[in-house]
Amino acid sequence: MQAVTDQIRNFLQYIAVQFIEHPERAQLKVAELGPKRLRFKLVLESSDVALLIGRNGFSASAIRGVLKAAAERADVQVNLQVHSHEEEAEMLAREEAGS
Question: Would you say the pTM of this structure is higher than 0.90?
Answer without folding.
Answer: no
